[in-house]
Design a protein that fits this description.
Layout (H helix, E strand, L loop, with lengths): L2 H17 L11 H8 L46 H4 L3 E6 L6 E4 L21 E3 L7 E3 L29 E4 L3 E9 L6 E11 L4 E12 L8 E13 L3 E15 L8 H4 L19 E18 L15 E20 L3 E8 L5 E6 L11 E20 L9 E15 L4 H4 L3 E18 L3 E13 L5 E13 L2 E14 L3 H4 E3 L4 E3 L5 E12 L4 E11 L2 E3 L5 E3 L3 E15 L2 E12 L10 E14 L3 E12 L6 E3 L4 E3 L11 E10 L2 E8 L12 E3 L2 E2 L4 E10 L2
Length: 713
């Protein structure tokens, strides 16, 4: 066991023993509570549960009179127009800020047993991702319509599930100071995966608070040259007052990943048994192949409300009045990437068969070209974006009215790109390019009581770096009720015309060079979804048409398709419950009219079957079960370490392999524990080809343990 584990586990076990005779208090809230609150389906006290208003009393709760002291002034509770009465009534809640609009998005706190045993973050959404395999490594969503649209630094998009940015930095409102710590580990010390996280949140007043989130995730590498380190930090401050609101945060993402290029051949996993995974031969045959990413970011967004009607002390919030909000948003983000390797060939012992059917060994180089240095590589690139936005939000009548808000804003983006080019041999300096783009945007939204929510938005770049880019979107949600249970039908439409990124048109590196102007991509999407949350049922369909699709071809070079591609996805989720038995199903069907440009599997699924019960009523709850992932065979994307992109290889099909995890999970008041054996079916059944991305095997069997503990005092 690691030193950190040796220090933590005895303390946790002692805490468990102390927790048995006394039930812990200050419970969190589960996802269903949050969902009901967000739907305005529950009524709570106007001010919520406000400990700042509590005063001392006698043993029967009656207020004592003290004529010798002045009456203490009661501080006002949370009055922000961002939150409705039901959200304010929650003991603790979390939200994210929107980049362009004066809005926030409420999210659930991670305090329940739901999905806690899924320690890889990229597996938590619908059917999961295509993945390199280990904690801290890259991934790409199986669902085409969930794939991240990184506009600039696309080299970081494979780490989307780990990194912080402006729209996913969390903010908290807590009635009591809250600390949550979690730790999970697996495998022998030499190959261990470790997953550590800590969150601290505290409110100075009902409207003002700060929080710190830190996560450290990675592996020492079960396979050769697969060590990863992933550190992510966010420091956030918020004030959500009656008129003035401000959100500020600093975030840092630091990623280090050794690159092994994948196995030399599928046979090394499917047809050969190695005593240890570290014996599997890989295509990048040295420890110097490595990517290092560094990201620093800061943002500050603030707004001030001007009521158009007289604001009195009896008006709890400005949400019910006519008002105008003016605001400003500033964002700074810088990314750097350094890739290194050595020119060493690898040996494939089963490269091909001779005329007698015998395997023939052969040597290969992973990269075909070494443009700058024939011996070693050190590619360094840098990108910085500084963005300013000024916006106005009009609230004509009521924030929850038929026309609730009308938004308009203008913004200016300053881009800086830096990389080594051939001419830099003479100057000794890296080439730096600066580009400017400005844009205008607007939106309108509203609702009709609790039955209809709608909105529309538009963003346009008139000139500059991205001149002519356009984004149009609309959303409509209809909610009905059957015996008190909400039935929700949603529709969403988007149309985008977007420029290629700088790096898709300009790259000079040791292994890849291109300098080619590309056409704008055009994509139209339509989404329809029907859900019954109280019965864990959801079905949805996406239809998309994309023209001039930019992708990375079989040789990993950037390419562009000149035609139109149609993509269709159908997703269904249904969780059945028979007493304590839970049967959870998520299934995705996808079709692409051009698999060479946008390859997708026909069928992908995530199934979870478990039994849940009370061991000690209201004290200890237990889950025992299996998780399974599966997708049909198709030409899954490969991963290129030098470019940090998934490319469309056409050599090997991947899939038709069930990947199962067995787990035991418990919640002891505010403590959560899981024990899991990952890939429990290895060597038992399946075709032995446990790949998700081409040539990158998923982890073999390993035992994992994880603990999460929350403190609210």
């Amino acid at each position: 066991m690691s030193g950190l584990t040796k220090r933590i586990l005895p303390l946790l076990l002692l805490g468990l023993l102390m927790a048995v005779p006394a039930a812990l208090h200050a419970q969190g809230f589960d996802a269903s509570t949050l969902r009901r609150a967000m739907q305005n389906g529950q009524s709570g006290a106007l001010y919520g549960s406000n400990p700042y208003e509590q005063t001392e009393g006698d043993e029967e709760g009656r207020q004592q009179q003290d004529t010798t002291k002045k009456e203490r002034k009661i501080r006002k509770p949370l009055e922000s127009y961002f939150f409705n009465d039901s959200i304010r009534a929650l003991n603790n809640f979390m939200w994210h800020v929107k980049r362009d609009f004066n809005r926030v998005e409420i999210g659930p706190l991670d305090t329940t047993l739901t999905d806690y045993r899924i320690d890889y973050p990229f597996y938590r959404e619908d059917v999961g991702d295509i993945a390199q395999g280990a904690l801290g490594q890259t991934s790409l969503p199986l669902n085409y319509f969930r794939r991240p649209q990184f506009f600039d630094f696309s080299f970081a998009s494979p780490y989307y599930a780990y990194t912080y940015d402006m729209e996913n930095v969390p903010f908290y409102n807590t009635k009591r100071p809250m600390i949550r710590m979690s730790y999970a580990e697996s495998g022998q010390k030499r190959y261990r995966e470790e997953n550590f996280g800590i969150m601290v949140a505290q409110n100075i007043s009902p409207t003002t608070g700060f929080n710190v989130d830190y996560k450290s995730r990675g592996t020492r590498g079960l396979y050769l040259w697969s060590r990863t380190k992933n550190h992510n930090l966010s420091l956030a401050f918020s004030h959500t007052g009656r008129r003035y609101s401000v959100h500020a945060a600093y975030y840092n993402n630091h990623i280090e990943q050794q690159e092994n290029g994948g196995v030399v051949g599928k046979w090394a996993i499917a047809d050969t048994t190695f005593s240890m995974p570290s014996g599997v031969p890989m295509r990048l045959a040295d420890a110097e192949a490595k990517n290092v990413y560094r990201n620093n970011g800061f943002f500050l967004t603030q707004s001030y409300g001007i009521p158009l009607q007289r604001l009195t002390e009896s008006d709890f919030s400005m949400a019910g009045l006519s008002a105008v909000y003016i605001g400003h948003s500033f964002e700074y983000s810088s990314w750097s990437k350094i890739y290194t390797d050595l020119n060493k060939p690898y040996t494939n012992e089963r490269d091909h068969r001779d005329e007698n059917g015998q395997f023939v060994s052969a040597e290969h180089n992973y990269y075909d070209h070494w443009y700058i240095n024939p011996v070693e590589t050190r590619d360094s690139i840098y990108e910085r974006v500084i963005s300013n936005r000024v916006f106005v939000q009009a609230q004509p009548w009521d924030r929850n009215g038929v026309v609730g808000t009308i938004d308009a804003g203008v913004g200016l983006d300053l881009h800086t790109y830096s990389q080594f080019k051939l001419d830099d041999y003479l100057t000794g300096r890296y080439t730096t390019e600066r580009k400017t783009s400005w844009f205008a945007y607007g939106s309108v939204s509203g609702k009709i009581k609790k039955y209809v929510d709608w909105d529309g938005n538009l963003k346009f770049y008139p000139s500059g770096y991205r001149g002519g880019d356009l984004s149009v979107g609309a959303h409509l949600a209809l909610t009905g009720y059957l015996r008190g249970h909400p039935l929700i039908l949603e529709g969403r439409f988007t149309m985008e015309r977007r420029s290629p990124t700088y790096w898709q048109e300009n790259l000079f590196s040791n292994h890849y060079i291109w300098d080619t102007p590309l056409n704008k991509e055009n994509e139209t999407r339509l989404e329809v979804k029907f859900s019954v949350p109280d019965y864990a049922f959801e079905v949805g369909a996406w239809q998309g048409v994309v023209t001039n699709k930019i992708y990375y071809g079989s040789d990993s070079n950037v390419a562009q398709d000149n035609g139109s591609i149609s993509l269709t996805s159908v997703y269904a989720r249904k969780d059945f419950r028979l007493g304590g038995l839970h049967l959870d199903h998520r299934v995705l069907l996808q079709w692409s009219t051009n698999q060479e440009v946008v390859p997708v599997p026909l069928l992908s699924a995530f199934l979870s079957y478990y039994y849940e019960f009370w061991v000690v009523r209201d004290v200890l709850r237990l889950q025992i079960g299996l998780d399974g992932r599966y997708n049909t065979r198709y030409y899954a994307p490969g991963y290129n370490p030098a470019l940090s992109v998934y490319y469309n290889q056409r050599e090997e099909e991947v899939g038709n392999y069930p990947y199962l995890d067995a787990f035991v999970m418990a919640k002891w008041k505010r403590m959560r524990i899981f024990l899991k054996y990952q890939h429990v079916n290895k060597g038992l059944f399946g075709n032995g080809e446990y790949f998700s991305a081409a040539r990158y095997p998923l982890n073999p069997g390993m035992f994992k343990i994880g603990i999460s503990w929350g403190f609210y005092d």
